[in-house]
Amino acid sequence: MFTFLEYILIAFYVAGLLIVSRWIGQQAFSWMPVQATAEAQRVDDLFSFLVSIGAFILLGLVGVIVYAIIFHRARQKDYSEGHSVRGDARIELLWTAVPTLLVLWIAFKGFSIYQQLNILGLQQIVHLHTPVESPAYATVANKPQPATETIDVFVKQWEWSFRYPNNLTSKELHLPVNRSTRLNLHAQDVIHGFYVSAFRLKQDIIPNRNIDIVLTPIRSGKYRLKDSQFSGTYFALMEADVYVEPLDTYNQWLTQTTANEPTQTKDWVVAESIQAHKTFFNSGWQTFIPASPAIAKERKVSNDT
Amino acid sequence: MTHDSSINTDGELNNSSNESEQNWRRYFSFSTDHKVIGVQYMAMTFMFFLIGGLLAMIIRAELLTPEANVVDRPLYNGLFTMHGTIMIFLWIIPFNAGLANYLVPLMIGARDMAFPLLNAIAFWILPPAGLLLLSSFLLPNGTAQSGWWSYPPISLQVPPGYINGEFIWIVSLILIGISSIMGAINFLTTIFWMRAPGMTFFRMPVFVWSVMSAQLLQLINLPALTGALILLLFDLSLGTQFFKPLENGDPVIYQHLFWFYSHPAVYIMALPAFGIFAEVLPAFARNPLFGYRSVALATLGIALVSIFVWVHHMFTSATPNWMRMTFMVTSMLVAVPTGVKAFAWTATIWRSKLHLETPMLFAMGGATMFIFGGITGVMLAATPFDIHVNNTYFVVGHFHYVVFNTITMAIFAAIYFWFPKITGRMYSEGWGKLHFWLTFIPANITFFSMHPLGLQGMLRRISSYDPQYQGWNIIASLGAFLLGASTLPFIANIVGSWLYGPRAVNNPWHATGLEWITSSPPPRDNFEEIPIVKRPPYDYGDPKYSVLENSNNRD
């Protein structure tokens, strides 16, 4: 099949690929946002591993294809056969077995990292109306991590609000650094999603279900919470500030802040209705405006333009 | 592959008897000829492709700047909803159905499809359904605005009145689904019962295998979507509470039903594209398809595994841990049969005699980009990583690498490859190559840019975004505009060549396969006499395919 020299060349090619793909895998960390939770570090490790393997396969195959394009061109009008090999059981078995082992390896790695996330507290408990027994083969623990702090997260069209243990309600999410906090997520109208990219954590929030997640930020700073599940007209504006701060600062904020008055009309909705005239093209389509502040049962329609 | 009669290699084939039949009017008639129906499908879906592409242009124009300043938000939501719906349900899936309609009977040596009338009915459901969908742009409150998934409860939030965009969207999709089920029955029956003597399963071209696998998926999975849509319609218009969480319905059930079809839908779209690669690559590499049997079985394998992976779209949807882990493993297993195909394509090109004509460029470009799309797919299957990038532009980039850079490239490869067979004329090679480069480079620019955006956390379906994302968005938008422009040389080439191109011979590519032994375009009954198949497919070692044709349409 190959000459000895070709085997040497192939060995060099594979070695070069290994070095290059390892390097690309190392670069992958810099493509991600900052790591604000321990979970983020684990997820980035997994991503780097996936990028290394992916780069190896991609560059390997593309290299072969490019080589063929350069060196295996037909002469004009030559329609004879390149080679007469119709298949090779050994090679075909090899390229079936190796990827199988490879994806099992990736799956195992994904599974073990997922378990670590659970150890670290990326944990969700879904309370259904009829509690479902988890099957015997569910090896991932469904027990919530003990959390030092519990915050209620309320989301509706079009705002996030947070209720703290001292009954303070705010539009900002404050979290103590290096402590686990449980978030009880509640959606009022449609499905929303809790997503902070620096936490590498995303969880859909389904109305009429209580979904808890536990997270432990490890890096102080200001982050953005976004709605990750499409939730209607002003979906892009469903954001809130997240402050991760030392415990003293957090407690200080809790005691010194007075509750935000729940606003009846949101400033930005008003701004948007003015903004609507500024778009280059204006459809005039009416949009659904939920009843505020209660759960939207009746439907009001306002012309948003 | 061969048969008893010799191949007609007369370049000056007399097509005058077909000329009267070539009358363009028949393409607007209720014909039961599978070839006419195939062209009808392909021409109509291409119109929808242009419309869907136009919507994408507006979306990308909006995303040039962080603010929402091109279209207002309800319209933007309508645009991405309609873009997704049109591109999937009125472009790729029906185009594949059209191509399969044209080719399958020819490839297996049949005179027509098993149920010609059903075939025509299945097609003629589509234009009204498509026009109905487009008509929702004219409604006072516009089109459906909840994305092509149409998840409840957001899809049930509509302005008052019975006729709204969402209602039209559901009715249109149910109609398109009915058409697809009709088509699936027809294709499977045709492939199982209408094969020529000697055409065993393991002598069928891989394209026929891929159509068979894809249509099996249509038959098994599409009823789940149709059922879900009917329940959604009841919730929307009749006041039921199947999916209304505030009235004890369960919106997650809808997600399961929806993805139970819509994940296999990806393979319904992709498998025929892989089939196209399997036809085009050997013809221009002058090699047999490497490992034909394992590639054929891998096609069926992909279809089977893809039925059991749908939850990977719902890793963040309050999905229990055991389900997350199970579907992580099944999703990754899809990589094995698809890997077999990718390796087989590469091995086919290896030590070949490459002819880089336009169909080959598109096929190689598409196959290469599929490797990239497949790798990001395996990444997304890994639950911990998916939790971070789910619903971000990383996902958008990944599936556009599959649906555009792989499948649409394959479709272009197919159009160029079978154009002489379908029209009896040759296209212009120079314009074709220009079209390839104008497609390949901007497609990579556009869709690669979406990956870093997603990793940084830019969510899909947003009409305004944080300023930090603007750089990559500008690159993606500029690539997209070039991509839009790339269709112009294609249209000019196809229309001009169809009308004025040089006459094509029966087998301009010296390709194996029964469709090449009949005239270009084929007669009404496809073959003078039904061929008898005695040899395996992709028989490029046979000297008769190396014979030079005395044709004046190849330079």
Please explain how this structure is put together.
Chain B: Belongs to the heme-copper respiratory oxidase family. The complex is a heterodimer of chains A (305) and B (555). Chain A is α+β, with helices and mostly antiparallel strands. Helix content of chain A is 36%, strand content 22%. Chain A is built from five helices and 13 strands. Chain A has helices spanning 4-27, 38-71, 89-120, 247-256, 267-275, and strands spanning 124-127, 149-156, 159-163, 169-170, 173-176, 181-187, 192-196, 201-205, 210-215, 221-227, 239-245, 287-289, 300-302. A six-stranded mixed beta sheet of chain A has the order 1-9-6-2-3-4, with no helix packed on it. Chain A has a five-stranded mixed beta sheet with strand order 5-11-10-7-8. A two-stranded antiparallel sheet of chain A has the order 12-13. In chain A, strand 7 and strand 8 form a beta hairpin. The longest helix of chain A has 34 residues, at 38-71. Chain B is mainly α and 555 residues long. Chain B contains 15 helices and no strands. Chain B has helices at residues 16-21, 34-62, 73-108, 116-135, 165-193, 206-237, 251-285, 292-306, 321-333, 335-349, 358-381, 383-389, 393-423, 429-455, 470-500. Chain B is globular and about 70 Å long. Residues 1-18 and 548-555 of chain B have low confidence and may be disordered. At the A-B interface, helix 2, helix 3, strand 8 and strand 10 of A face helix 3, helix 7, helix 8, helix 9 and helix 10 of B.
Helix and strand content put the structural class of chain B at mainly alpha
Helix % of chain B is 55-70%
User: How many angstroms separate the termini of chain A?
Assistant: 72 Å
Oligomeric state of the chains present here = heterodimer
Query: What is the number of E strands of chain A?
Result: 13
Binned, the helix content of chain A reads 25-40%
Find the structural class of chain A using helix and strand composition: alpha+beta
Largest interface, by Cβ-Cβ below 8 angstroms: which chains and how many residues each?
A-B, 113 and 105 residues
Strand content range of chain A? 15-25%
Rg of chain A from C-alpha positions? 27 Å
Mean pLDDT of chain A, rounded to whole units?
Answer: 83
